[in-house]
Specification:
Beta-Lactamase; 4 domains; 22 helices; 44% helix; 5-stranded antiparallel β-sheet
Length: 625
């Protein structure tokens, strides 16, 4: 096209379906064809003589303004591709120099054109694809009202009507929403049942009114259930899109929760309980760690921590991390003043869950957390005897995460289950401590009656715990071994003093009576409620021998309960190194040699080997425990 010709005189341009207009050196419109006027919804006299930026129905991006300025200044043909909000598609823009100004030619690119990125439109709904929408974000001016539209009950629609019926349902709603949107809006299909909308402005309420009006005439998935729920916020120039999206999603989830409550529906069936798993764990550390690991699996967070509160201080005692995320600070067991711990302190004071989708912009922010890139957080109290003594802390790093009502319920339920489990363990621990104190007292009473064995129970018990740990006994088995050690001589209550306290050796008849103390002790112990079989085994069988020559049942080998085999070694060792009226105390070395000699005869060889390891590496402990 010649620079000397005037496009305004070429009425044939009005028959072209592309947008064509002319600006002078001052960027004022001198001509616009019919297609351009139709797109702008204006008459020719409304645009001629006016600056381009006033004529256009939406503001051009900085990149586009720069391209126009460069072409005007240099009178150089310029061509580029961009996403047009007005056309809702990719367009080609060609700037032709003309008499100091420019002829602007805009044409939409066909869907099969070589435009960077995937297909721009969703085949089912005609909305932008998620990829095309995210590309368009780069060329949009802000502020924009951001809306997320989430279809209610699509799964039930698919179940009742089949997936073809579900597709029809999605398409019907998408078209109704598109028709209700302002002219310059963008709408994309973000997921299967979720749409994202951007429309210029700062008034979420105005957009909500439009969407609410559109929804009134749409079919819902079931009776008294609306077609969709909406979350809205303003995306401004200071806000990353990801942050705005998370805030919008949080509003959406709150509305959906409100709708569920109004409709009487429950989400309890989707909440994961930890009851059975926690009941199977006895150690409090295992309970806490398991709960954190499960939360990290269930919810989209990067850090899960357990903050223990002691007085005016708090510290992280446990943590779980998603793979690839930085280790949280402060480190484990580093104490901080509670007043300086932000949301943990808030939870301690309010006794309720606190959450922040946009953590960096909250008054409780801790500088250390900001330095680590924490963007979203939820903190839930854990009670003990009515007081907040800990908190579950969940965080995301370098990304915003919507804190939904469902998510809070999961964390609060976890805290409640953890509280019950820990309280049960605490109560059981107190009962066990009381029971063991009673057992120890009973053992001391027995020792007081038999003055020759003073301190024997305590020493043999301590050594048996070391030996049991060396052999890999679990916590329950160690408890049973300890309690059995306290009560191993319970049956001596039935032995007459003239036999029990006889200074010399016993006659064969007296020895038979003395041997009967294990059966008598077993019978007495069975009358104590709640004593486990492992305790009873130690009482009855600690005088059995590996070769079957022991008493009272002549058991041999592994038929002898392991707890009894372990205590037998400790019992004999302490008896050997203790003075009696009928013998002097043996040295540690002499006692160890005797235990070794009786391996495979009196004692289990494997237990003896573990005992010798203890004796070699901790001879002082073996001799004085």
């Amino acid at each position: 096209m010649s620079q000397k010709s005037s496009p305004a005189s070429h009425t044939s341009l009005d028959w072209i379906d592309d947008v064509i207009y002319v600006i002078d050196a001052d960027s004022r419109l001198t001509y616009a064809n019919t297609c351009a006027l139709n797109h702008w919804r204006k008459q020719l006299h409304e645009v001629v003589g006016h600056p381009l930026e006033v004529v256009l129905p939406h503001a051009a991006t900085r990149e586009i303004r720069g391209a126009f300025t460069h072409a005007l200044r240099n009178q150089q043909r310029t061509e580029f591709e961009t996403f047009s909000v007005l056309h809702r598609s990719w367009i080609n823009v060609t700037l032709h120099p003309h008499g100091g100004g420019l002829i602007v030619h805009i044409r939409p690119l066909p869907r099969n054109s070589e435009v960077p990125g995937p297909e721009a439109f969703d085949a089912l709904t005609g909305c932008l694809t998620r990829a095309a929408f995210q590309t368009a974000l780069n060329v949009l001016d802000k502020p924009q009202v951001l809306a997320i539209v989430d279809l209610n009950g699509l799964k039930s629609v698919n179940t009742l009507r089949g997936h073809s019926g579900g597709d029809t349902h999605i398409r019907t709603i998408a078209r109704a929403v598109q028709e209700a949107l302002p002219e310059n809006s963008l709408m994309c299909r973000w997921g299967g049942d979720e749409f994202v909308i951007l429309t210029p402005g700062t008034d979420p309420d105005a957009l909500y009114v439009l969407l609410e009006a559109a929804e009134t005439n749409l079919p819902g998935p079931a009776r008294n259930v609306t077609a969709y729920a909406v979350g809205l916020t303003v995306w401004d120039t200071t806000t990353p899109f990801e942050r705005a999206f998370s805030l919008t999603d949080e509003q959406l989830q709150l509305r959906k929760e409100h709708l569920r409550e109004q409709g009487g529906t429950s989400t309890d069936e989707s909440l994961v309980t930890f009851s059975q798993e926690l009941e199977a764990l006895r150690d409090p550390d295992d309970l806490i760690q398991h709960a954190l690991n499960r939360l990290l699996d269930l919810l989209a967070f990067d850090h899960a921590m357990y903050a223990t509160i002691e007085g005016t201080e708090t510290f992280f005692s446990h943590r779980a991390l998603r793979e690839g995320v930085p280790v949280p600070q402060p480190a484990l067991n580093v104490r901080l003043p509670l007043a300086e711990t932000g949301l943990v302190n808030t939870v301690h004071q309010t006794r309720t869950t606190a959450w922040r989708t946009d953590y960096p912009n909250t008054p409780e922010i801790m500088p250390l957390m900001a330095q680590q890139g924490v963007k979203s957080a939820i903190v839930t109290p854990v009670f003990s005897q009515g007081q907040v003594n800990a908190a579950i802390v969940l965080r995301t790093v370098n990304r915003w995460q919507s804190i939904t009502p469902h998510m809070r319920k999961v964390v609060e339920l976890t805290a409640l289950r953890l509280e019950h489990a820990l309280e049960l363990r605490r109560a059981v621990g107190e009962i066990r401590s009381t029971l063991e104190a009673g057992m120890l007292t009973l053992g001391l009473v027995l020792e007081a009656r038999d003055s020759d064995t003073q301190g024997h129970t305590t020493r043999a018990n301590g050594l048996s715990q070391q030996l049991g740990e060396r052999l890999g006994l679990n916590a329950d088995a160690l408890d049973h071994l300890r309690q059995g050690a306290y009560l191993h001589d319970l049956g001596k209550l039935s032995i007459p003093d003239d036999i029990l306290r006889k200074p010399g050796r016993l006659t064969p008849q007296e020895w038979v009576i003395m041997q009967g103390h294990v059966v008598k002790g077993y019978e007495l112990a069975t009358r104590i409620p709640g004593l486990p079989q492992g305790v009873l085994d130690v009482i009855r069988s600690h005088h059995e021998r590996w070769d079957g020559t022991g008493y009272p049942d002549a058991l041999s080998g592994t038929a002898i309960p392991l707890g009894a085999r372990i205590f037998a070694v400790c019992d004999v060792y302490d008896a050997l190194i203790s003075a009696r009226p009928y013998k002097e105390a043996w040295t540690h070395e002499e006692a160890v040699a005797e235990i070794t000699r009786q391996s495979g005869w009196h004692f289990d060889p494997e237990v003896v080997q573990a005992f010798l390891h203890l004796a070699q590496h901790s001879p002082d402990h073996a001799g004085t425990t």
